[in-house]
Write a structure and sequence with these properties.
CATH class of the largest domain: Alpha Beta
Order of helices and strands: EEEHEEHHEHEHHEHEHEHEHHHHH
Helix content: 40-55%
Number of strands: 11
Shape: globular
Oligomer: single chain
Strand content: 5-15%
Number of domains: 2
Radius of gyration: 20 Å
CATH topology of the largest domain: TIM Barrel
Number of helices: 14
Structural class: alpha/beta
Largest sheet: 8 strands, parallel, barrel
CATH superfamily of the largest domain: Aldolase class I
């Protein structure tokens, strides 16, 4: 049984990665329904929380049916991160996660996210202050290192454990790689196999199919997996991976009715949570994957990503359900 603190996650948990403008409550609800064992929010700016910025505060919204749920924060200033931790704890998550992995320039080049991988002593000090400021379990999401010459993740994980984190998720790329090339899980496995490490280690990067998940599980033997980009518009991936790991058989892909139903639910929840403008805009990135592999659906996908009216969007989804009702995946 894999545990983070006292939170039991099962024998081989699958985690939903924190993704900006993706891992919001409407999408998390679908992932939970389709097998995610632990989910994290979008990352939240510590400075935004301290300033009470509306967008940052809204990201603290979590719901009982999502549990266990972790809220992820990021920042470059230790005192601001400590204050943000206290604010975050008031939202009553199960876990507080620290983002030490975001590679985008506007975050990393300010010393936050993966940027802190250039200053490991500060990373350790910040983590220690965050752990001291909350009774909740603290976890970390990070990368192998800043670049090829600084892949110190085995040592880093041990030092972070020593100051109190309860689990670590590692993306198998450096910050310099961004999302290019193949994720290297060998160092993730080396971290897991460090005899001085006794916290769960979750692997992240390039898990995009049940077969790939099984290969990585068998080869690297980490405690579980974090799924990111492969879940966008395809929340079924969690149950598909679980079923394949348990039985060696693949689940049938979702039918057109199931895809349309999920898409309708996603859009409806997004409208309720973010309103008619953002609700429409932030659901668009999912449409391609909801209907991936369907011959002739391109014109409908184009309508979905250019239409602003919620009523018209629901009508387009109804059209797709009728036109492709006999489609075989």
């Amino acid at each position: 049984m894999v545990k983070i603190g006292n939170i039991e996650l099962g024998e081989y948990p699958l985690l939903l990665a924190p993704m900006e403008d993706v891992s919001d409550p409407p999408f998390r609800e679908l992932c939970k329904q389709h097998g995610a064992d632990l989910m994290y929010t979008e990352f939240i700016s510590s400075e935004g929380l301290i300033r009470d910025a509306a967008k940052s505060v809204q990201k603290l919204d979590i719901f009982e049916y999502e549990r266990p749920i972790g809220i992820q924060i990021f920042g470059y200033d230790i005192e601001s991160m400590r204050e943000a931790t206290e604010i975050t704890a008031e939202a009553n998550p199960d876990i507080i996660d620290i983002n030490y992995g975001c590679p985008v320039s506007k975050v990393a080049c300010k010393g936050a996210g993966a940027g802190i991988l250039q200053d490991i002593p500060k990373m350790v000090r910040m983590t220690q202050e965050i752990v001291k400021s909350t009774n909740l379990p603290v976890t970390v999401k990070t990368r192998l290192g800043w670049n090829e010459e600084s892949k110190y993740i085995v040592e880093v994980a041990e030092r972070l454990q020593d100051v109190g984190i309860k689990a670590i998720s590692i993306h198998g790329r450096t910050r310099k790689q961004m999302y290019k090339g193949e994720a290297d899980w060998s160092l993730i496995a080396e971290t897991k196999n460090n005899p001085r490490l006794n916290i769960p280690v979750f692997g992240n990067g390039d898990i995009n199919s049940p077969e790939k998940a099984k290969m990585m599980k068998d080869r690297y033997a980490v405690d579980g997996m974090m799924i990111g980009r492969a879940s966008i518009g395809y929340p079924w991936i969690f149950n598909e991976i679980k079923h394949f790991l348990e039985t060696g058989n693949k689940l049938a892909p979702p039918t057109i009715d199931e895809r349309v139903a999920a898409c309708r639910q996603h859009l409806q929840r997004a409208l309720e949570w973010k309103g008619p403008v953002l609700g429409v805009l932030e659901t668009r990135r999912h449409y391609t994957n909801y209907f991936k592999g369907m011959f002739g659906v391109k014109e409908y996908r184009k309508k979905l990503v250019t239409t602003d009216s919620p009523e018209e969007l629901f009508a387009i989804l109804d059209e797709i359900a009728i036109k492709f009702k006999d489609h075989q995946f």
